[in-house]
Amino acid sequence: MKLFDVYPLYEVTPVRAKDVYVYDNNDIEYLDLYGGHAVISIGHSHPHYVQKIKNQLDQLGFYSNAIKNPLQQQLADAIGEQSCLHDYELFLCSTGAEAIENALKLASFHTQRKKVIAFHNAFHGRTSAAVAVTDNLSINAPLNQQQEVTFLPYNNIDALEEALKTEAYCAVIFEAIQGVGGLDQPSEEFIFAMESLCEKYGSCLIADEVQSGFGRSGTFFAYQQHKINPHIITMAKGMGNGFPIGGILVHPQIKAKYGMLGTTFGGNHLACSASIAVLDVLKEERLQEKTKALEEHFGERAQQIPGVKKIKGRGLMLGLEFDFEVATLRKELIYTHHIFTGGSSNKKLIRILPPLTVKEKHFDLFFDALQLALTKLEAN
Ligand SMILES: Cc1ncc(COP(=O)(O)O)c(C=O)c1O
To answer: Each residue of 145-171: pLDDT tens digit?
Structure first.
């Protein structure tokens, strides 16, 4: 049987990984500054994480949401402690797109409205409502285009109010730092306006933290830099360090009702154990606090590279913008220097999404390689 061919692949076959390094089937070591798309938070195969999942598997790997699972409460308490969002309530699922689906559905239940406001360059996933609020027609099938979505630019408060005052919108969904879209951030003024206008016109504000959450941006959630209270927060990627788990945090204003949301796999024992292990390590190794110094070091080194036009992002959700498309440069980095980096819908941007255990020395390796790669490309 052939694989359904939807992914353009690099010619690399990783077979094992440790912390910030990935090893291929020829035992070549790659520095992972992509983190499998911002997923690896506490480093590959962290011993505490591996042990916790193994222990759980020996006890009980899975049971559905028809029984009591105390690990879900343990996870909720740990997220509450580290995010300081003690009053929010947790619903668990398995992927980022599923978190978005549940967030939008909940907003629609809560407001009894259908329309959604999303933003230019937004990426929220590939399933039904998630892809409809993603600003990329090429991945949006006719079926998904039935959803009523208005795309607005960030930072246009008048346009936002014009739309919201129709009182037809169940939600405004935003990324505090755009991921796939290329690391743009709405202004603080606009973030406050989103919060107050949603309150004024009865819409829900959804912060999509699928990529930026779990400490990656320097605060537990990226939006928390701005002291707002969204109605719903979505999370996934870094939450499980590779184990598929996602979730939403729901403001106490929104009340739960049996059957309103549900899933077979979400919040299973193994997934909860994986995420609890992630939170243990984030706390124990103070990874979130360390992102600030790493971001500064990254910025200092980036400024010394003449080809870099702009340094983007925050914490360990970073990018370098050039005045040319970076596909060839990224290939040179991976095949010659053995460094994984990320791309984005902005073709001139290299994204850096390393495990949060990355060190300054790894950035030094990257910048030395980048300089060599740029010199080689210029010479050709
Ligand atoms: C901000 C954001 N939201 C949602 C998603 C969808 O997550 P998943 O691929 O787990 O469905 C992504 C994935 O890249 C994302 O970056």
So the answer is: 999 999 999 999 999 999 999 999 999
